[in-house]
Amino acid sequence: MKEMKERILQYLQEHPKGNKKEKDMIEDLGIEDTEMFYRALEEMRDAWEIIREKEGNYRTALQAGISEGVLSIARNGMGYVDRDKYESIRVAEQDQLDAMDGDTVIVRCLPWQMYGEILEVKKRKRDHLIATYVHNGRKLVLIPDDAMLRRKMIKVLADQSISPVDGLKVVCAIEKYGKPLTLRVVKEIGHKDDPGVDILSVLLDHDINPEFPEEAMAQAKAVPSSVKESDLKGRKDLRQERTVTIDGDDSKD
What we know:
Distance between the termini: 57 Å
Number of helices: 5
Largest sheet: 5 strands, antiparallel
Shape: elongated
Oligomer: single chain
CATH architecture of the largest domain: Beta Barrel
Number of domains: 3
Helix content: 10-25%
Low-confidence stretches: none
Strand order of the largest sheet: 5-4-3-6-7
Mean pLDDT: 89
């Protein structure tokens, strides 16, 4: 199979006009095992190594302007696909499929085109997000904390065990990408004004476990509450001096 794919790729590279169809390759390459040939074509198309145009002609990914990169979406909705060794490709909002900021995507943009289009999302950056219930004057609505996601149409599948109130922050699993973006509320974090909820929300948004491992907790408990004489060696003891800090009561550094 590997040898078959290499023959196909080399053949298409030698015919950059992109006017070769399946029958041309079978005839020119002297293919006898057509079953393996068609299976190789399918696998190469699935991997975006080659592409079959509407007319039935084949091109390599490079000839067709296809590449892989990471999508960044600006506040105005314009997307930019950042690629290794190449310039970023601009992608208009209507050509982004259901891709989200940070997703790894397959994009197509020919040299004479100003904008590209996303063909497939290869890898999702996120499978959950943090959102806050807000009363808009008529009813409670769920607003993503990430401002980039507030442009999207959202459908919410509520957890009956959670009673939403104005200001409540929650963790939402992404059930379905696209329009609308379907979210399921899975965990209550706390009210946005409660102490520590802001930090906890950031940790959960970045998929960081806020709970310390047992080993770390045991090590913390083992730290003595009083200072030993040996601890003062090489240090200047200023505990009896009056000190001033510029950090406020709510400082988190």
